[in-house]
Amino acid sequence: MRRTATATALAVLFSSVVLVGGAANPAAADSSAPLPIKSSGDMVVDGVHKRIFLSDPTSGKIVATDYSGKVVRTIGSLPGVMGLELSTDSNTVYAAVSKAGAIAAIDTATLTETKRYALGKGIEPRYPAMAGGKLWFGFNGPEDAYRGQIGSIDVSSPDAEVTLPSDGANSWYSAPRLASDPGAPDVLAAAQEGISSVALAVYDVSSGVPRKVASGPDVPLGESPAFLKDFDVTPDGKKLILGGGSPQDAAQVFSTADLSLVGAYHTGSWVDAVAVAPDGMVALGSSPYASKVFVYPSGATSALRTYDLPYSGGSTTATNDLSETGLAWAPDRSRVFALTTNVYGNVYALRVLTDPTKSATKVTVNAPAKSALGKKLTVTGKVAAKGAFPAGTRATVTRTDVESPKGRTLSPVTLKPDGSFSFTDTPTAGGPVTYKVSYAGDASRSAASGSDKVDVPRTAPTLTLNHNKALYAYGKDVSFTAHLGKTYKNRTVELYVDPFGSDKPKKRVKSAKVNSKGDLSATVDMTRDTTVTAVFAGDGKYAPKTVTSTAYAQVKVSTTLSKQYRTAKIGSTSYAYYHKKTNPLFTTTMSYYPGRRHQLSLELYYQGKWYDAGSQYFGLGGNGKSAVTLTGPHDTGYRMRVRASYVNGTSGDTVNSTTHGAWKYFYFTN
Asked: Entry's SUPFAM superfamilies (predicted)?
C-alpha cells in the first residue's frame, strides 16, 4: 500500500511540473617545365642566346624559353603560326604565320617581331627552311590554283624579294614540309603530310631556283612510309630520316640521291619526332603509352642513350606523349629538348634531356639492412656503364645520418675495371644511415649516383610526463613536467599543448634544454580537457620518443533561485520557500562554449528518500547564462531540489569533463 501511494503521489506531482527555459542573453581554407601553350607547331633552338622557340598555332603565339624551360617572353599576334626556322647566323627566327599569309621575322636578341613578309592573298605558309641562301617555305595556295607549292624569300636582299611559282612547278597535294641542314646548304627536302602515302622530293637550290633531283620514295613493296610525322636531313645532305605511322616500329632512312631506302632505326614503336645534331647524331622520339627518346651516334643504328618519358595515365598535371616534331638538339649537343603533352589535360611541358652524347651510367649500392651502432659494416656495389674503367677511377662516397643531415664525405672508393666496388665504414650515429656513391662521369659516360640505407638501432630513452588522467577544477593552473632520462648529446624537449575543440589547434609552448634534473615544465590554464605532448627528437645514440598526458577540466557551474518569499532551514539545509501560485525562476551560470547547453535535474523528497523527478536540457546564452521557470500548479508539503550539470557529449560538446553543480533546495506552501 505504501509503494502504491508513493507512486501515485509522484505521478500526480510530476504530471503537473512543466520546465520553461529561455536564454538570459541571446547567443552571439630529369627536369621539366610546364608551358603556357595550347598546341604545338614547331620548335627551334638558338644556341647563341640559349633560347628555345615554340610555336602555338591555336593561340597564335611563339613562346621563348631558356634552356631550363622557363618562359622568357611570349610573342603574340601570329595567327596560325606553324613552322619555325633559325637563320644561319642565329640572329632571326622566321615563323610561317599561315592565317596572316606572311612570314614573320623574330629578333633572337630582343625577342620581338622586326619584320613581316606579306606573301599575297590566299597564300598560307606552313613550313620554312633555309637553303641556298634563301628562305624557302611550303604553302597552300588559293583553291583555284595548285594547292600545295614551294615559294622563297631572298632575306639577304634589302628588297627581300618574294618568289612564288606561277606555272604549277613543284606542286603538291597540300603545303609540303621542308627540311634542310646548314652542313649541306644546297639541299632542300620536301615531304607530303596529311595523306596515307608519304611523297618525298629532293631539290638542288644552289641556283636560287628549286631543281628536283629525286622523287619517291623508292621502296620495296610493303615498306612505303605512311602518315608523315617528322623528318630531317643529315648534315652531309646525303640522307633523309623519316618517322611516321608506318612502319610502326622504326624510322626509315632514304638516300637523297634517289630516295631509295638505305636503312632504318628500329625503335619498337612508331616515330613521332626526328632531330639530327650538327655532327650527325640522331635523336628519335617514339610514343604513345611508353614514350621514349633514343639517341644514336652518327652512322650507328644501336642507341647510345634511351630516355623514358613518364606515363601519367589520367593525370592532368603530368605529361606523357611526345609531340610531333617535338625534338630539338642544343647546337653544342649538351642537351636534347623534348616537347611532351598530356593527352587527357592538354598540358604541355618542355623536358630537358642531359648528356645525350654519353652512354648511360647506373650506380647500384648494397648495404646491410641492419647493423649495430659502432660496428664496422661493408658496402658493395657497381657503377654499370659501357666499356671498362681505367685503373684508378674513383667514385665519391657520402654518409648521411642524424648527426650529418647534409651528408659527410668519406674516403673515395676505387672502381675495378668492371665498375664494382667495396668499402667498409663504422656508423657513428644511429637511426637511418644512407650511403651514397656518386660517379662524376667522363668523356663517354654520364654522371650517376646510387644509394642504400642501413637501419642502425638506437637506445630507447626514458621520457615521462605527469598528470595523465588527472581531473581539475575549471581554470586551475597546472604545471606539466616532462622528465628526460640519459641521452647522448641532445637534451632538448619540446612541449605541445592541445586543448580539446577544433577552435584551438595544437601549439608548441616550449622548446628548451631540460634542467640538471632532466625536467622541463609548462603551465597550462585548465579551462578545457587538454592533451600535453612531450617530444624528444633523438640524437646519435638515442631514438626519438614522444609521450602524451591528457588531463581533464571541469566547467564552472552554479544555479541561483529567485522569486521566493523567504529562505529558512529545514534541519541543517537551507530552503527557498514559495507560495504555491508562484513559479520559481532557476538561473544557471556555466562556462560558455558555442552550442553548449546544460542539464537541469529535479528531485523530490518522499518518506526519507530523494526521487528523480525528471531532467531536461537548456541552451546557454552568449554570456553563459540561462533562465528556466518551473510552472505550476505546485503541490504543497513536498521538499524539492534542483541542480544544473554539464554532461560531456550530451551537453552539445566534448571539450570539458562532466560536472554537476550544487543542489539548490526549495519548498512550496499555501
From this structure: 3-carboxy-cis,cis-mucoante lactonizing enzyme
| CATH superfamily, with its number, for domain 32-354 | YVTN repeat-like/Quinoprotein amine dehydrogenase (2.130.10.10)
**Residue linked to cell 500500500:** 1
Mean pLDDT of 617-631: 96
Torsion-angle region of 5 (φ positive above 0: left; ψ -120 to 50: alpha; else: beta): alpha
Give the domain 377-456 fold: Immunoglobulin-like (2.60.40)
What is the CATH number that goes with domain 463-553? Answer: 2.60.40.730
**pLDDT above 50 (res 460):** yes
Instruction: Compute the average pLDDT of residues 535-547.
Output: 97
Say how far apart CA 134 and CA 148 lie, in whole Å. 19
Residue range(s) of every CATH 2.60.40.10 domain in the chain? 2-26+555-669
Neighbours of 111 (CB within 10 A): 17
**Cis previous bond, 125, omega within 30:** no
The number of angstroms, rounded, from the C-alpha of 649 to the middle of its chain's C-alpha atoms is 40
pLDDT digits (tens, 9 = 90+) for 394-405: 999 999 999 999
Q: All 3 cell numbers of residue 381? A: 656495389
Q: What is the CATH number of domain 2-26+555-669?
A: 2.60.40.10
Distance CA 244, CA 146 (A): 25
Helix (H) or strand (E) holding 4: helix 2-15
Helix, strand, coil in percent for the chain, rounding step 5: 5, 55, 45
Question: C-alpha grid cell for residue 557?
Answer: 557551474
Q: Are 134 and 144 in contact (CB under 8 A)?
A: no
Residue 171 has pLDDT above 90, yes or no: no
- Mean pLDDT (the chain, rounded): 91
Which of 249-258, 319-328, 604-613, 644-653 is the least confident region?
Answer: 319-328
Under DSSP, is residue 637 helix (H, G, I), strand (E, B) or coil? coil
CA dist 150 and 171 (Å) reads: 7
Distance, in Å, from the CA atom of 83 to the CA atom of 388, rounded to the nearest integer, reads 45
Distance of CA 195 to the CA centre of its chain: 41
pTM of the model: 0.70
Mean of pLDDT values over 531-544: 97
**Predicted local confidence at residue 288, as pLDDT:** 65
